[in-house]
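HUMAN: Spend a minute on the protein record below and explain its fold to me.
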Amino acid sequence: MKKESIITLLTAVLATALTKTPLVSAARKSPNILVILADDLGIGDVGCYGNDTIRTPNLDRLAAGGVKLTHHLAAAAVCTPSRAALMTGRYPSRYGLTSDERMEVPIIPHLSTKVTLPLDEVTIAAALRAANYTTAIVGKWHLGMHCSLFGLSCPGPLLHGFQTFYGIPVTLFLQFGDIQTFWKFPVSETKYQTLVATWLLCVISLYLGRKRFNWGIVTFVFLLVLTNVILFVVWFFVSHVGLNKGTHWGVSPWLHKHGNSMILRQDKVVESPIELDGLSQRLVSESRQFLRAHAKDEKPFFLFHSMAHVHTPMFTAPHMKGVSKHGRYGDNVEEMDESIGALLDSLREFGLEENTIVYFTSDHGGALESIDHDGQRIGGHNGLFKGGKLQGSSEGGIRVAGIYSWPGHLPAGRVVDTPTSLLDLLPTVLDLAQLPPMQELVPHASDKDLDGQSIAELLLKGDVTPPKERIMLHHCCTDIRAIRLTRGNHVYKMHLGKVKWHQGSTQCGWGRVQHCRCYGDAYHQDISHEPELYDLSFDPYEDHPISPRSNEYKEIVGYLQQYMKEWKANVVYPPSPMSTVRGIMWRPLHQPFCLFCRDEVTISE
């Protein structure tokens, strides 16, 4: 009996040890998540993607220590809808955060506009917060700020799962980098001549009125001042508000800068206008402070570091000026890489490297046509992929760098060629962190169908077997302009519309604000009656369309046309507030302001 008792006891101890092993593992702290998003970075600007003239050593080492995605895709070729897709894992057309051809405004133009990411959409921050993560965003948001009356509070990302926000509410418009003139009175223009005539008429009328009605000097001066104030307000609206010459999206360059060039901490303005010099370093300093503050927390964190580079206007810290072989744009790319290096070094410094998933990408491809006043290129390079920013489904506008790293968990140096998307971020990090799906974490989102899918297995195992069939839609505003089909060893792309590039190029000229667009008769050609079909596995740069007479063309095109027909029958896109003047207009009564607040910004560590 004693021998049996000993055996029973040993068996019980061993069973307890075996059962406790997974419990200990399950009780371990979930991985931290750091997402680094570049702005307007061309895939051809990065060393590990083939560039040998711009130095990006920190991105290169991130790729060497993780998984590099070579067929990584943005959901749109312009930032607001692309960032919305990254945040939600859903096509932005599903919830109206895109425009249409009537308005030609594919982004949110003003901090105080009504257009926002709908509150019922679930972001990655909201899902992770529900999973007990500490969440923060540093840098560019550009998904709407929900400003209250008089701009007393503009919570923006704080309403979408983020607990802290320090950064740029919209984007860095070119006007932010230029000196803008408040006073302008071109007397050659009819409306200003009318203002002069009106002012003279009012002054003469007041003078005659004083004589006739025997007004005292106080009454006369009061009426004169009131008249000038009224005419000043009229002049201000003529000069700075409205759709007249010199205005952009309803406001003048001066008002655009002073109404939108701001940095917010939480829901309040702390800097206006933005001091561009040193901005990248201030953003990195803010993220370093967050990493240091939460390095020892029991709760994991999600930090979204949304970079200002390499979007125009070009600005460079003094120590980075002239370091590259490609002028200001190259300097900006290398300064961006320096910021990434500082963030990666911070993870190591604070003991976070081994338990932090890092994901780097760009919101879309580079702007091919952009040049500055002095002729320097200020837009990116998209390798041999055709097209660029704003060009809808053009490969150069949506093919982006994508790198995942998690030391000790994801293999180092792996390259994945299977098509993936920014849409995949939300389900992928939940899967890697062994968390429940988004619909379980956020019960009220049970009816939200994700368009992204987890690529965790792909990151862990690589392209060991042909991927499962997958279809991706590529939109221009609310229209589907291309469909991508992954099937076996083939990646087909069917174009329903093409951009009218200048002959011999994949762009539409040169200029600071010159872009090909995917809409409008001047830029867009409808080819849905006979779509072009390419097999990107064998023809990645779309040089040789598959013959419409081939059986392969007929099978694939027929299959995708049927898919699109069923999609349109089952998925109804709501009207977008971005497609109305009322939706995108500047709202002065909701405009935040800041007169003496620059000293409130803390950049020390």
The chain has 15 helices and 17 strands. The longest strand covers residues 479-487.
